[in-house]
Specification:
The chain has 125 residues and is α+β, with helices and mostly antiparallel strands. Helix content is 37%, strand content 21%. The chain is built from three helices and six strands. It has a four-stranded antiparallel β-sheet, with helices on one face. The protein starts with 5 loop residues before the first helix and ends in a 13-residue tail after the last helix.
Amino acid sequence: MPELSRRRALTAAAALATAAGVQTVAAPGATAAGRDHHAPASFNEVYKGRRIQGRPVSGAGHEHHGAGYAVFVDGVELHVMRNADGTWISVVSHYDPVPTPRAAARAAVDELQGAPLLPFPANAN
């Protein structure tokens, strides 16, 4: 039986570390995928005289930042993004993370102070 050389020991250690790293990276992805079936509930309400709505969506454009969820203020889409920690932000209140898309819509209404929400050209060429 051959002796265990330093090179073989380091190679084996590197292989084990790589395998452990791949499992560590895969675990959060599995958790994130598990969160998808717990998407925020739809909402449709009047908040401070403004119609705010939110609902899960599928298709191009929403999957990247908004995690498959669309929010509207008076029928105009409010671009929302989900942070890695599960909080939400919008283009109107970008530096004030909130726990839900509904809270993001309400924060946007508060920040707009009656001004209309203008369409956000997120995918304009």
